[in-house]
Amino acid sequence: MSEQALSIPIIDFGPFIQGDPTARQQVAAQMREASSQWGFFYLANCGMPQASVSEAFQASKDFFALPDEIKQSVAWQNAQSNRGYVGVRRERLDPSKPGDLKEAFNAAPEDRDASAARNLWPADQPEFREHVETFLSDCITTADRILEAFAVALDQPDNFFVNAHDLHHHTLRLLHYPPLPEGFIAEQGESRAGAHTDYGSITLLFQDDAGGLEVCTRQGEWVQATPIPGTVVINTGDLMHRWTNHVFCSTPHRVNVPKAAMHRHRYSIAFFCHPNKNANIECIDSCTDASNPVRYPPISAGEHLLQRLNATY
């Protein structure tokens, strides 16, 4: 396979935001192709404020540098709330492997659903909360634009996906992969994040420059998703895979430990975009024909998420 064929696509989203109908269709077509062939692509000029991204990364570094007792005071409790701090090895994304060599902090929007669980904020850290909430808001704006483009790509009304996500049942996850000690030897397949697919509709992933993210191609080869400054990595998740009847694919990915970076801290931030929990996920009419019959019965988005989370922890 050629090197070009193994290059995760890079898409300029600027023309879609600017609004020319022809340009919007062209960008949406590129996103459809990338989501069908890869389930992953880099998005440039997506509209995320750089200051917000920088402040979120600094807030993440400051949080993970706190003493363990402070982090444990806001520990993750259950899949229903899915908020708070997750310690190193607490999560096992690949059930056949040991716990992942990472720690995380989950937060979620609180603006649309009064019945939802509340975020768990560490005491005496007001700037941390402020920066995370600002970043959350910016991610929602960006995700809605991307969802609109996906609707255009599938010949649906512009607001088809946005309306199904309007309760903001998303999850923001700050991630820290600690440096590994000198002489570290992985035990029984240990990694920073085991091979997995994401659970929801789309994910926005912001990386630092440490590297380590790998994506599995349709041919079963693992390709590095090297950080590219000024871009956001977008991937489609299991619910989008199901919703589109496999027109868009949910691709396995993992975080390995590059030898050159094993003694470095690695930080990333993932925004997991999830439909409203009561949204009925059933095959989109433009994603089925005689050669691609409907593959799945309808399921609620909330039921699907709980099944996946309970299998992970």
TrEMBL record:
Its EC number is 1.13.12.19, 1.14.20.7. Pathway: Alkene biosynthesis; ethylene biosynthesis via 2-oxoglutarate. InterPro entries: DIOX_N, IPNS-like_FE2OG_OXY, IPNS-like_sf, Iron_ascorbate_oxido_reductase, Oxoglu/Fe-dep_dioxygenase_dom. It holds the Pfam family DIOX_N. GO terms for molecular function: 2-oxoglutarate oxygenase/decarboxylase (ethylene-forming) activity; metal ion binding. Keywords: Ethylene biosynthesis, Iron, Metal-binding, Oxidoreductase. Residues 168-275 form the Fe2OG dioxygenase domain. One of its GO terms (biological process) is ethylene biosynthetic process. It comes from the Bacteria. Its cofactor is Fe(2+). The keyword Ribosomal protein does not apply. It catalyses: L-arginine + 2-oxoglutarate + O2 = guanidine + L-glutamate 5-semialdehyde + succinate + CO2; 2-oxoglutarate + O2 + 2 H(+) = ethene + 3 CO2 + H2O. The keyword Cell cycle does not apply. Monomer. Belongs to the iron/ascorbate-dependent oxidoreductase family. This is 2-oxoglutarate-dependent ethylene/succinate-forming enzyme. The lineage of its organism: Bacteria, Pseudomonadati, Pseudomonadota, Gammaproteobacteria, Pseudomonadales.
